[in-house]
């Protein structure tokens, strides 16, 4: 029997991200960022608290535009940026965080300023007729400067094709560094909090606690190749795991202290993000040949992802698809990345660097094999309903 009902935070179990002391009052009020460079209109942020699932009205352009790729290798950056740009919650976040009026860096040396500028120009530029070439170049420059020596994103300084998920983690890190010590805005935007519980088969004792926070759900495809599993199946595996753990119950006879054993573990979401990033990990390393290859399995995904069964109290938790990054090629550092993004009104548009490839209805996008060009899904972005 597993411990669904007793899965509460136990202070005896250390959980580094749980802050047990009350947070001090914040010194700064959130304010709408003023765009300071260029001639763009001021940011149209959405006022008031609550969920942001729509862009504000009044954009001059409601269709996507391409983003220029100066060296042929930055398709992975453009595909990721298109997904982030098309998430209303991300737009609202970037428009509401206190940053640009306080930032002392040059715009081309600050990733947060660069992101704000690009997203603002993308939607609010008057008379926009072409892709925001200058804003995207400034962001690339800021990534190069701030990413100097970054272990998280080694391709920050290169002109090579990199991994869009590495870039996502790097951008998140840059945003996190910008936030005030006690701010929870970014945390609420991207963070998934998980608790775990399992029962020791030796002493019968409960083991429970909190896992480190994650800003995406990893879906490792190695080991399940050719299984035909869809996204729901893969996500289920993130909530029911078999892992080596040591029993924490004092005087447990069955466990030599420090020797982990395989346990059946249940997980729950204890805090859900507004934007859920799902990372399909397609790299498989062959220990015999020493060669890393890519897994091309199709993983069908739904437009509406229901995670209600994984919440602690089984409250409703549903997400709607907003963006897909897809990759064609043998390995992550070759081939080509594109993005499909939810349009303002209906359906999706697929964008390859500067070019709009096509407009797809939602049902067409979701159909496995919708693309005849052998693109594999790499990242999915869902927005909480
Ligand atoms: Zn800045
Ligand atoms: Zn035990």
TrEMBL record:
Enzyme class at the top of the EC tree: hydrolase
Biased composition (Basic residues): 25-34
CDD domains for this protein: Peptidase_C19
UniProt GO cellular component terms: cytosol; nucleus
Keyword Repeat (UniProt): no
USP domain: residues covered: 65-385
SUPFAM superfamilies, sorted: Cysteine proteinases
Transmembrane region(s): none
Region described as Disordered: spans on this chain: 14-34
Residue ranges that the Swiss-Prot or TrEMBL entry lists as coiled coil: none
Catalysis performed (reactions): Thiol-dependent hydrolysis of ester, thioester, amide, peptide and isopeptide bonds formed by the C-terminal Gly of ubiquitin (a 76-residue protein attached to proteins as an intracellular targeting signal)
GO molecular function, one term: cysteine-type deubiquitinase activity
Entry-linked Pfam families: UCH
Keywords for this protein: Hydrolase, Protease, Thiol protease, Ubl conjugation pathway
Family: Belongs to the peptidase C19 family.
Protein name (record): ubiquitinyl hydrolase 1
The species this protein was found in: Extremus antarcticus
């Amino acid at each position: 029997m597993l411990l669904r009902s007793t899965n509460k935070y136990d202070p005896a179990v250390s959980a580094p991200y749980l802050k047990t002391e009350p947070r001090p009052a914040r010194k700064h009020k959130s304010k709408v960022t003023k765009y300071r460079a260029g001639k763009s209109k001021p940011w149209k942020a959405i006022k008031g608290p609550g969920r942001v699932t729509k862009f504000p009205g009044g954009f001059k352009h409601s269709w996507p535009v391409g983003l220029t790729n100066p060296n042929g290798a930055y398709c992975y950056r453009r595909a990721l940026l298109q997904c982030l740009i098309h998430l209303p919650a991300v737009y609202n976040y970037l428009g509401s965080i206190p940053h640009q009026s306080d930032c002392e860096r040059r715009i081309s040396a600050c990733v947060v300023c660069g992101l704000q500028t690009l997203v603002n120009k993308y939607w609010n530029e008057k008379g926009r007729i072409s892709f925001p070439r200058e804003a995207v170049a400034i962001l690339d420059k800021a990534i190069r400067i701030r990413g100097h020596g970054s272990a998280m994103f080694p391709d920050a300084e290169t002109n090579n094709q990199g991994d869009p998920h590495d870039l996502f983690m790097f951008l998140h890190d840059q945003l996190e560094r910008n936030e005030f010590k006690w701010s929870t805005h970014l945390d609420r935007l991207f963070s998934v909090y998980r608790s775990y519980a399992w029962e020791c088969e030796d002493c019968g004792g409960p083991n429970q606690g909190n896992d480190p926070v994650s800003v995406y759900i990893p879906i490792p495809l190695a080991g399940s190749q050719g299984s035909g599993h869809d996204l729901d199946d893969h996500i289920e595996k993130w909530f029911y795991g078999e892992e080596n753990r040591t029993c924490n119950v004092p005087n447990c006879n069955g466990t030599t202290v420090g020797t982990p054993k395989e346990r059946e573990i249940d997980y729950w979401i204890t805090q859900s993000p507004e934007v859920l990033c799902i990372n399909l990990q397609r790299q498989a390393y062959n220990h015999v040949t020493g060669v890393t290859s890519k897994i091309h399995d199709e993983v069908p995904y739904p437009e509406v992802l229901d995670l209600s069964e994984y919440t602690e109290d089984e409250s409703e938790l549903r997400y709607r698809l907003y963006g897909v990054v897809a990759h064609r090629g043998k390995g992550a550092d070759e081939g080509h990345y594109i993005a499909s993004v939810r349009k303002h009104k209906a359906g999706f548009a697929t964008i390859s660097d500067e070019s709009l490839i096509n407009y797809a209805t939602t049902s067409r996008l979701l159909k496995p094999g919708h693309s005849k060009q052998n693109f594999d899904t790499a990242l999915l972005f869902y927005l909480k309903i």
